[in-house]
Amino acid sequence: MRKTVANVLAASGALALTLTLTGTANAGGHSIAKPTLTGFASLPAATFVPGSEPSGAQASGNTNGFTLPFADQPVQGFSGIADNGDGTFDVLSDNGYGTQASSADFLLRIQRLAPVFTTNKVDVLGGINLTDPSGYVPWKLTREDRVLTGADFDVESIVKGGDGSYWIGDEFGPYLLNFDRAGRLLRAPIALDGVVAPETAARTGVTATARSSKGFEGMAASPDGRYLYPLLEGTVTGDPAGRLRLNEFDRRAAKYTGKRFVYQLESPDNAIGDAIAVDKDRFLVIERDNGQGATAVFKRVYVADKRDRNRDGLLDKTLLVDLMNVANPRKLAGFGTTFTFPFQTIEDVVILDDKTIAVLNDNNFPFSSGRTAGVADDNEWITIALPKPLNADKRVLR
């Protein structure tokens, strides 16, 4: 694990981990038979960017007691995460308030955060707004100053380069968006042939082949950094039910290679929440149902392997963590011995070390209430010890 994160976890009194000769994780002298909670932190739902701009004027629905519009921009809806390797993380806020029409006053932003497991809190260290000052987006944007909003793009996945630049996956195209370290767009949005979201169809007149909000929900980077693997959240028209396209994109050539893989959902009604690389062949994929609270049943992290060893044309899937059944023998954060993550949208997974992952929810502020009915969800950040190491590529772990 990166040194800073390891120290934070150790200081929190979380379970100390070692490896036995059999490769089974060992916690406090007892072998771990199932994934185990080792850290918990949360950012309160009502956290805002100080001195920003009003937001939420067009939003409607059950706001769980909050009054709209807000005086500032909420720090919410985490839909993608990039590890900075120093105990801080760049986390992508979602596009706003659930729809394109309701999110024109939500500024797209990357938040810089740091979990503090000793206090079960998350520090907000700043962030950057996403902009297009050079005019690479060829259609009219919401704002004349070319600050991007949730009516322009629905950003859902993020990869950070060694130079601090970002590749971000969008759902309204779906598009790949390339930003510099200051959040300025570096090139025109890159479309995926044959996949057209309704938002793009409405603007261009081209027939939609994907449902709304079913674009690039997850995006992995190959360990050498050359390739991106954006994963669609929904099935493309004409594809078998529950099958999701994972395309290979060459960052050096700035185009798709033509290689495509297929992820099969356990149910056509499920969706994916994130996808990240373990090595050149394997990915961690969050798959979830649409329930929350009492109706949340299926929230899982799988290992998906593109080698397709059984030759069925699909990524090979192995269950890694059932997020509705995580061991919590020390009753961390006041929860019982079985910890659940009962949120509608769980959209962030990151590998901390070869036997520890972190998972975050998207709280859809102020609409979701999976933890307590009628109460807007916080953004929760959990760390989970795995029974066996991932044997991840060392470049993923650095």
Automatic annotation (TrEMBL):
Signal peptide residue numbers: 1-27
Cross-referenced SUPFAM superfamilies: Calcium-dependent phosphotriesterase (SSF63829)
InterPro entries linked: Phytase-like_dom
Keywords: Signal
Coiled coil region boundaries: none
Domain Phytase-like, chain residue ranges per copy: 73-365
Superkingdom field: Bacteria
UniProt-listed PANTHER family: BLR7070 PROTEIN, PHYTASE-LIKE DOMAIN-CONTAINING PROTEIN
Identification of the protein by name: Uncharacterized conserved protein
Organism: Paractinoplanes atraurantiacus
